[in-house]
Amino acid sequence: MELTLALAIGILTGSGVWLILRPRTYQLVIGLSLLSYAVNLFIFSMGRLRIGAAPVLGSDGVGSPADFADPVPQALVLTAIVIGFATTALFLVVLIATRGLTGSDHVDGRESR
Amino acid sequence: MDWTDHLLMVPILLPMVTGAALLLIDEVRHTAKALINVASTLTLLVTTLALMRMADAVPPGTAALSHSYAIGDWPAPFAIVLVLDRLSALMLVLTAILAVASLVFSLARWHRAGSHFHTLFQFLLMGLGGAFLTGDVFNLFVFFEIMLAASYGLLLHGSGVFRVRSGLHYIAINLAASLLFLIGVSLIYGVTGTLNMADLAVRLAAVPAEDRTLLQAGAAILGVAFLVKAGMWPLCFWLPSAYMAAAAPVAAIFALLSKVGIYVILRLTLLVFGHAAGELDGFGREVLLFGGMATMAFGAFGVLASQAMGRLAGYSVLVSSGTLLAAIGLADAAIVSGALFYMVSSTLTIAALFMLIELVERAQEPGADLLTVTMAAYREEMDTEEETEEEVGVAMPGALAILSLCFGCLALLLAGMPPLSGFIAKFALLRAIIDAGEAATPVGIPGSAWLLVAMMILSGLAALLAMLRTGIRTFWAPLEVIVPRVLVVEVAPIIVLISLCLTLTIHGGALIRYTDAAAISLHDPASYIGRVLETSPEAGEAGQ
């Protein structure tokens, strides 16, 4: 479980970093999205991982607060997703505006010679 | 808790409500929107002045140092608190002053250059107010994002190729920095289990040794996010072009945005990694000191190399940031006090400079700069759209004389020459650095302190040279002088900002007393922690 999650975060981050270093605006926005997925998973994992535990109540029908998952990282992830969604949407608009104004999808607005 | 404590909500709620209400008014009704915005911003100024009085009313070094306000009346470590102390009150007042100045400036023309200027402006103020007041790291992220989202819109305000292209870079850099912010925050939460700044400072001492590296990594990543915002040297290449591309009133308020990064670093390093932190005391100070000095050097060279005035102002922001970061890195109450004075003075100066540049550039013929080849090549690229909108209001007589006078004052302020407040700020900072150096070591002042002193003086010299050169080229060299059409409403904010600096010169003692008290309380985290964690649900019931 830990290994899978760590690998997932690592691969997402690696691909994201590679993409944001690319010169095309589309690659940039995909890279930023992948990075934000990686970060969201990372925040989530900071609430500690547990396998095979009951979600709220134990098998005897009694719950203990010690068994509950930490709700704070979940709230953080939710906020981060909302903010990331909004900023990505805004960024897309700027991408389209740059494309329209410069006629190029290079991040510098012109092709490198 | 009496009713005045509820004033802490005003710098967040007022801009939010105003901004939302302005959305409902049709774009064509400029005047109504402008009036509402001005009224709201003036109210904000009055409120922040009241908050400053509140913060200054308590003697420094006592437990009742900062006002804290539990949102929703939940007890402190579990819910978000707003905290007001001298530092945050100072930042709020600075925000409000710059907001009024740049808003008035924008009324001449800029507020009609695109849609939703007033709404974005108010949301920017909301983000700034929240970032300065919040006592919770994640809430800081939220307000940071509000501020940044509004700043993206404002940077693009007025459109044009140059702006949109710089806006793209600015947004990409800031989105990446925000992700670092999130990683840092979640690492810190993972190790300490809290997001409340005061609670964090308490729990830090109890962090087991094996988790300490993880915590340091988290704090460092968080720090990088703020240093991107503040523009520390290897992270600052985006800043001059973004600030240069922004419309003049927007650039003026952006002069404050880089200070948000400085504010957070000052707050967190002194609160969390202060003397109470045990093993972690002084974490990252060398990075701030030497990084700050590298930023100053980079900024000074940039100032000297700038052909365009907007770029010169952008690099001045870097010099100012670098000086502040290096001063924070020395971590001494007297130095921080001087640094706060310097921050007020330099922020006012740079904001005024950004606004003045636009007016001065109207006096230049587009072809006047052909002498400098680099600039010609540069200009070609730059977006030289002609604003065809008809200007309203009273034009300024003797415009060029007044502009050049303002330019001269700003040159003195930037360079830190007497008699204006730039000199007092630098003098206070230099004296504190030398005093602290003498007190710390019996053999004498450490080399790093001397280096910083030298850098501050040299960066002042660089600013003076660059401003002189620009001034000569602009006001004396042209054979054919074009008298720019300048409106009173555009010059007034610049004159007000310069006269504020003049007031700081004459009544500098009052501000120094204030910043002294602010610095002393920043170096005494126990009072901040005590006040925040003491906030109990019962305390709120006495209100209303």
Describe this structure in words.
The complex is a heterodimer of chains A (113) and B (544). By secondary structure, chain A is mainly α. Chain A has helices spanning 2-20, 25-45, 71-102. Chain A has a single domain, classed as Helix Hairpins (Orthogonal Bundle), CATH 1.10.287. Chain A has three helices and no strands. Chain A is elongated. Chain B is an all-alpha fold and 544 residues long. Chain B has one domain. Chain A binds chain B through residues 20, 25, 28, 32, 35-36, 39, 42-43, 46-48, 72-73, 76, 79-80, 83, 86-87, 90-91, 94-95, 97-98, 101-102, 107-109, and chain B through 138, 141-142, 145, 148-149, 152-153, 156, 159-161, 164-165, 167-169, 171-172, 175-176, 178-179, 182-183, 185-187, 189-190, 195.
Topology at a glance:
The complex is a heterodimer of chains A (113) and B (544).
Chain A: H1 2-20, H2 25-45, H3 71-102
Chain B: H1 10-24, H2 30-57, E1 67-70, E2 81-84, H3 86-106, H4 117-133, H5 137-155, H6 161-192, H7 197-204, H8 209-230, H9 239-245, H10 248-272, H11 285-305, H12 309-330, H13 333-362, H14 373-381, H15 399-415, H16 421-440, H17 447-476, H18 488-506, H19 508-522, H20 525-534
Helix pairs in contact in B: 1-2, 1-4, 2-3, 3-4, 3-10, 3-13, 3-18, 4-5, 5-6, 6-8, 6-9, 7-20, 8-10, 9-12, 10-12, 10-13, 11-12, 11-17, 12-13, 12-17, 13-15, 13-16, 13-18, 13-19, 15-17, 15-18, 16-17, 18-19
